[in-house]
Each structure stands twice: as C-alpha cells, then as structure tokens.
Amino acid sequence: xxxxxxxxxxxxxxxxxxxxxxxxxAQGVSGDTIANLTDVQKYYxxxxxxxxxxxxxxxxxxxxxxxxxxxxxxxFLLVSISVPLYYFISDFGIFGEKGSQIDILIMAEFGAASLxxxxxxVLGRLKMQQYLILGLLFVPFYMFNEWIMLxxxxxxxxxxxxxxxxxxxxxxxxxxxxxLGVAISMTTKNEYDTSIEADATSDRFSMLGSMILWVFWxxxxxxxxxxxxxxxxxxxxxxxxxxxxxATGFASIKLRGKIDAADIANASLAGGVAIGxxxxxxxxxxxxxxxxxxxxxxxxxxxxxxxRLQKGLKIVDTCGVSNLHGIPGIFGGxxxxxxxxxxxxxxxxAGIGLTIVIAIVAGxxxxxxxxxxxxxxxxxxxxxxxxxxx
Amino acid sequence: xxxxxxxxxxxxxxxxxxxxxxxxxAQGVSGDTIANLTDVQKYYxxxxxxxxxxxxxxxxxxxxxxxxxxxxxxxFLLVSISVPLYYFISDFGIFGEKGSQIDILIMAEFGAASLxxxxxxVLGRLKMQQYLILGLLFVPFYMFNEWIMLxxxxxxxxxxxxxxxxxxxxxxxxxxxxxLGVAISMTTKNEYDTSIEADATSDRFSMLGSMILWVFWxxxxxxxxxxxxxxxxxxxxxxxxxxxxxATGFASIKLRGKIDAADIANASLAGGVAIGxxxxxxxxxxxxxxxxxxxxxxxxxxxxxxxRLQKGLKIVDTCGVSNLHGIPGIFGGxxxxxxxxxxxxxxxxAGIGLTIVIAIVAGxxxxxxxxxxxxxxxxxxxxxxxxxxx
Amino acid sequence: xxxxxxxxxxxxxxxxxxxxxxxxxAQGVSGDTIANLTDVQKYYxxxxxxxxxxxxxxxxxxxxxxxxxxxxxxxFLLVSISVPLYYFISDFGIFGEKGSQIDILIMAEFGAASLxxxxxxVLGRLKMQQYLILGLLFVPFYMFNEWIMLxxxxxxxxxxxxxxxxxxxxxxxxxxxxxLGVAISMTTKNEYDTSIEADATSDRFSMLGSMILWVFWxxxxxxxxxxxxxxxxxxxxxxxxxxxxxATGFASIKLRGKIDAADIANASLAGGVAIGxxxxxxxxxxxxxxxxxxxxxxxxxxxxxxxRLQKGLKIVDTCGVSNLHGIPGIFGGxxxxxxxxxxxxxxxxAGIGLTIVIAIVAGxxxxxxxxxxxxxxxxxxxxxxxxxxx
Lengths: 390, 390, 390
Description:
By secondary structure, chain A is mostly helical. Chain A contains 14 helices and no strands. Chain A is globular. The two termini of chain A are 32 Å apart.
C-alpha cells in the first residue's frame, strides 16, 4: 500500500462519487431577478474565498524556503479534492440540506479552508498522495461536525443556537485541532530534529499570502450573511484585522527584541479568526478590541509557546496553526458569550467542547491512517518529489 | 525599418484610431436600476478577467528565470495595446454590433487573453516593440474570426449556432494556433539550441500566476452569461479545474517519475480551457469528467509531446501553449457535440475547422511580418533590453 | 522619548479613540432591497481598494532589495492604524457628515492610500514605530484638507465645486507633497549617500504590486460614483492606464537607452493618477490621451528629474512619489479645467493651490515631529529591526 497504488485511491473515490451522484443539471434561479442578483453577489464572495484558499493559504505556507513548490502543489491538490468532494456529498443529503447551489459552493470552500489549516500543522511531512488521502478523510469528519453545530445533527446543539457566523470554531479551531491530532499521530524524531528554514524571498512570498488573506477576509466572514449585514460585517472584520496587526507589531518587538516577519504574516490574521463567531453582531469598538486581544494572544503563542510545545511535547506544528487558528478560534467562540445578547450559553459551550473533542479524535484517527501510507525521508525539501533544476 | 523608427509604428496607429473614433461620450445606462446593477455585476467579472490578464498570464510566464522583467513588461504592453485597439475598432462597427459598453470591454479583454496565449508561444524571442506590432496585427485577425464564429460574418456559421460560451475555440485554440503560426515563421537555430531555465523563485512566481488564473477563471467563463446562469457556470468551471488539477498531479508523477511544478502550474488550467465551450450547459458531473480528461491530455502534451515536437519539427513553443490552450481548447469545442443537446453539428465542426485555418494562416503571415522587424541576439535574457543591476 | 516608550503612543491614542467613540451599533440598511444591493456592490469596490493598499502599494515598495520585510510590515501597520483612525474620527463628525457606513470605509481607504504615498517618499528611513506616528499625524491633516476640498470646510472651495472624483489632487498630490515635506524635514547625509539597490526578485515583486494596482484602479476611481457611471468610469481608467503604459515603454527606452523595469512598474500607473479628477466625465478618447501624456511626464520625472532633484536639493524621495503621484496628480487636476464643461475655474485652481499649501506645511511639521523620535542607523536594510536568518 505504501507504493504507487495509493495514488489510485483518491481518483477512484472521486469517480465513484461522481457516478453515484447522478446528474445534477445546470439550473438557474429562474424568474426572480432580485434573487438572481443576490446570488451573483454571493458568487463574488465565493471567488474572494477561493483567492484566499489558493493564493492566500498557499503562499502563506511558502515561508518554508526549500518547500515552496510542494506547499503550493499541496494547496492545489487539497482544494481540488475537497471542494468537489463536499459538493457531491452534499448532493446525497447525508448531512442535512445545504441550501442553494451558491451556498453549497461557499460551504465547500469553508471546508477546504479548514482542511488547509489542518495541512498547515503537518506541512512538509506528508507525501503528495498523503495530502490527497488527508483531504478524503477530512471532509466527511468536517461535514459531520458542521452538521452537529449548525444543523439538526443528533439534536445536540440545535439549529441556530450555536453562534459562529464566520467559523471561529467550526472552521478555524476544528482545522487546527484536527491538525494537531494528525501531528501527534505522525511526528517522528527526524522531524523535530530538522529545523524549518526561511529566507528573504520565502518571507516575502509568505507575506503576500498573508496580505491576500487579510484583504479578502471580510468576504469570508460575510459570505453567507444577509445582504443588509454585509457592510457592517466587513467593517468589523477590517477593524479586527487592523487591531490584530497593530498588536502583533507591538508584541513581536516586545517579546523578541526585534520583529519577526513570520509574526506579522501570521498573527495579524488572528483578528480575522477571532472575530468570526460575532462578525455580524459585534459593534465596531468591540471588533477592534477583539482584534487587539487576538493579535497579542497569537503573537505570544508564536514567540513563546510554540518552541516549548515542540521541545516539551515533541509535537511539530509546522505552520503554528494552533497559535493562529486554534487558540484565537476558541477565544472567538468564547467571546460570543459576552458580546451576543441573549446567547444560549449551554449550546455555545457545548458546541465549542464538542468541536474540540470531535476534531482531536478525528485527527488522531486520520494520523494513524496516514502513518500507514509511509513517511518522507527528509522533511521540508522539494527535491524528494519534485523535479528541481536549481 | 529594423531600428528605432519601428517604435513609432504602434503609437501612430493608436493615435490615428483615436482621432478617427470621434468622441464616444461617457454615458450611463440611465433610468433602469436593475439594468445598472446587472451591468455593475458584469463589471466585477471584467475586473477579475483583468487580474487574469496582467497578474495571471504575466506571472505564469515568469517561469523563465532570466526573463522575468521582460515577460511582465511584455504582458503590460500587450494588454495596453490590445484592449484599446479592440475597443476603438468596435466603435467603428466593422465587425458587427458588440452590445453594451461593458460587453465590449469584456470582449476586448477576451481578445487580450487570446493575444497573450499567442505571445506565450514565442515568449523570449521577440523584442519589446515586436510584441506591440504583434498586438496591432493580432487584434484585427482575432476580431475577424470572432465575427465569423459568433456573429453574422459572411453567414458561414450563423449567429447562435456555434457553441463556445467560454471561448475554448475562439479564444484559446485560436490564440495557441496563431502562436504556432508565428513560431513557425520565426524560429531560428539559436532558439532551439538555447534551453529555457527555471529556478525555485521563478517557479513560485509562475505558480502565483497559475493560481490567479485558476481563482478567477469562473468569472472568465461566466463573464457574459445571463445572471441566472452565473452560479452554475462558476461551479462547473471550479469542478473542471479541480478535475484537471488532480489529473495533472497523477499524470505528472506517472509520466515523469517526479512531479514537475510547471505541469501543475499549466496543465491544471486545462480544465478551464476545455470547459469553456459548454461551461453553462454541462452538468457538474460532466464538468468534472471534462476537467479530468483535459488535465491528463495536457500533462501528456507537456511531458511527452513537447520535446518531440521541438526536436522533430524544430518549432519552439516557449510556454507550451499548444498543450495548454491548443489541444484542450479543441477538445472542449468537440465535447460540445456530445454534451449539448440539439447542437448544430455542421456549424460546430465548421466553426472549429475555420478557426484553425484562419489562425494558422494569420499566424504565418504575422510571423513573416515580425521577422522583418528583426531578431533578438540572445533569447530568454532580460539584459539585452533591460537595465539590470544584479 | 526616543526609546521604547514611543511604541505606546499609537495604541494609547487608538484606545482613547475607541472608548470615546461610544458604541456604533452593527446596523443594516434595513428594508430597501435595492439600496442594500447597491451598498454590497460598493463593498466589492472597497475590497478591491484594500487589495491595492496592502498587496499593491506594499509590493510596489518591495523594489528595495534588502528592505522587503520592512516595506511590507510598514504597509500592514500604516493601513491598520489609518483605516480605524479615519473611521472612528468620522464618527465624531468633526470634519462633516461622511455618508453611509460603506462610504466612510471607502473614504478611510482613500486616506490610507494617500498615507502610503507619503510613506513611499521616506521609505526605508523611518523606524517601525515612526510609521505609526506618521499615520496618527497624517490622518487628521488629510481629513482636514478633504473637508475643505469636498465638503463645506470654511466655505473656501464650496461643496461640489471642486472636481476630483478619483482623487488626483486630494489623494495623490496631497500624499506626494506631504511626503516631500516629511522628506525635507528628515533627510540626512547618510541617506543620500546610500544607494537604493534592486535585484531580479525585488523587481518582479515590485511589478506584482504594480499590476495589482493597475487591475483594481478602475474600482478605486469608481468606488463612490453612481451605479450608472461605474462602467464608463472603469473604461476611462483602463484606457488611461493603457495609454500611460504604452507611453512609459516608449519614453523609458528613448530616455535611458534600455528599459528600466522600475519605470514600467511605476510610470504606467500615472495614467490612473491623472485620470482621477475627470474619470467619470472624460470621453474615452480624452482618457486615452490623458494617459499617454501622464505616462510620458512621469517617465521623464523618473528618468531625468529624480536624480537631479536628489543631487541638487538633497532631498531623497525613495519611491519617487513626486514623479508618480505628485506631478501626474496636479496634471490631472488641471486637465479638469479643459475637459469638464461648466467647471468653476476659481474653485478648481483654489482647490489645487490650497491642497499643495496644506500638504507641504503639514508634511514639514510632521517631519519635524518624526525627527524628534530618532533615526535609523542604516537606511534600507531589514536587519536593523527584523530577525533575519539568511
């Protein structure tokens, strides 16, 4: 199983999916002009999210100097396996009704975002086909959790009780914790002995990815909100990101003496992660404060916690997703308890707790399965799997 | 003619154009609010296409290590010559009525896309002013073919009979075959003796261009469709691109042993090329299958056909546009025969055949004319025409 | 004051702002569906402008080879300090009524654009915290000038009399001249003795930023126009940018012998700067001619004027903002006198003159204050303030 045959796993599964799926026919939202216009407007947010997935997440991960081609190719593959998979599974209706076609597309992209976060935790330590298998295993787990949190799933949380508009918990925390689960099952000695190197060019590429994420994050959070909520949601997200960016600048220089470009590229985005749950309910002032706090927390994670975690628990989290998506995500979910008037405390806390449990269990299982498909000889180098001229 | 004077050719032509064109007055689509909103929505797709033209095509061509500044400058110049030229020629009404102002802008961008594909075939082997002359010659030929295929041109195909919504034939195949025609007329010995070198940085830039193209491709195909068709068109394009990306990953490793980053950057996009003709009529399942096939075909072209073509026929196709836009484009045009119910077989086949003939003849003529304006001493280096400090 | 404490200045000011600002509540434009749709459409233009601010301006400034991380971090910080600051100051209503929430966001982004232009003039010669202080000082001055030009400020120009839709004067010229003021107060000997170095990679990054600016410029100029004016405004901007790009190509080779990639990256954008004032009133032909002229003027500035200014007046304008935003901006404001029928000559000339005076005075004052917060040891290197592995 560790050899070439494993490459066939992914396309076979997809083909099976395709042929069972019957034949969804191309269909317009006929007649209603306003409904059409509204759907097309959602479409533009879907494209913004796609820019975040490929260019944003992809280039953010290019900070690993010798692993650029691999990181970008992995991003391509992860998006290309997960979006169709989510889309065709939705068509079966296993995990509840997903709404209109554009809503399904956006939710599929959310799933891809969460998957890319997971992949960030083990970046550089999977073979290319393992990224695909990761995608195939991740999506059903993700949809299962999403169904419990946001839909009728087992009646555990109840529809509409769990507040997480922009996915602080369901997308960010889930992806990060799932990734830690995989990392726990996968990390080997030669991984935490190998240092992850950046250089001036990889840093600039990484900041490009970060900027793309920053710019389009308002559309991520506002992707599915009502038309009349789009503008205020966007303003909240921009204020939260601004707050996080300022806090990151101060915290980085305070905690490290000099600024680390990786802090700026990563922790600045923690504002977007943390505002997720309350992006359409917070006031601008609250949004700014949430962002400032999230940036400080995240930078503290990158500057102080990361290396201790690695040395103490022997877990390598390549991109530090626990600091960017994990802690700030949970923080965002908890902030809803304060900010949202009339919130259902039990449902919110249950949702957060359940997501953490499902993510860690699913991640551990997935890691065990991936382990079965082998390991790279040397982590963080393109040369093992790519044709390299230079 | 080979000297500086040739630089004056382009602006003079443009100025002539401008002053003859009278004075189109700034005008709104007054009154009708819904029509205005719909036009503004098209405008966003026009901007997405512009991102593809400059950032997408531009950076995809940066894979040539020592020719980055030139590739990007050529992209700037080609867009800047062709969009105004198409726009002002449309105003004359030579090649039929083009619709509203935003439709004309989008069609001008389509022409620029096709031109950039052509330029990809001879990239690195033209002087800067020759790119401009190429643009001046290309646009009228392109508009002539477009007029025959999609409009009343000579009554050869007939309006509405030829199915090519996203331009598999009219944009992609036409540009690629035109480019081969130019390459046949232009290629010299010192070109196929000079190897085209990439490195880690040029590869990452190239993948950036590729990702921008991937992300905005749905807007390219959906640019001119009806509002109620936008969402399903976009979903089809995303599924086709996903299919092509997965197929490319598998095919690249299967055919080469290791993955070639250039395959991922290029052949992944073949899904977008091939879905063009039927992007608003295929079912999602069909779209995914078309994408998988296109990715496999395109990778086969890059990995196997390209080098043989170069050695056997002595034609250098710098960016491999025949593998990305040529074959997948024709494949897309032919797929319409199967997918679209009630298609006019004669018109579809005639359209494909005529486009191939017009493109190759026009390309050969254009190549001869360009040949007359001289040749670079050394292909694929910035230093000949650019100030280079490093 | 020159030490760490200065870092506290910015967040304290912001916090004060936040807590005074009361609590703007998240609010939708309830009820009116068309108004909502129109606001969401403006939102997409706001996102395009944000892409210009971070990715566009940010990467355009990465042409300084050893100062990439700093330039990008400074961009992050400048956007993150100025957008919230403008937003919360607007809430006070000091400088007049600013309109709806989305209008305020877009105007805040315009302010950030102007600030980034100012920063370009002294790029590489401020410490990170000084960029923040620059932002804190700049925004009130900018809003003061904006209030006089476009609103009722002192009744000096009068509302609606000054024609500057896309901000040739209020955004571009103001930012550039403010920057020159700062540069005059700040420039030291070791700055004009240190050369600014580019290399192939920094040039390609710079052209990426330039392309992002080019692509989204139509949305910048059309951000606040009426829905029925969006399309023609966009076409005018694209024609002006195309004209400037062509003129830059010709002028660069004519004036320097070879093409300078920095000319292409910068002067091509002068068309967007110059068309600003009349972007929604010019005809396409006029737009193209304005662009051609602006590109030629700007390239002349970069190729001929820049070095003489530096040697003669001992002012270092790092990014050459006077050539890209200063002169072309004033040119754009003056062009309105010819192009716009029924223009109020007195108001237009008074507006231009007043903006120049306010900008230079405010810049000189700001430079003096910044001077007080110290100086970098070595200009244009990341290593002084950033952790650098390579």
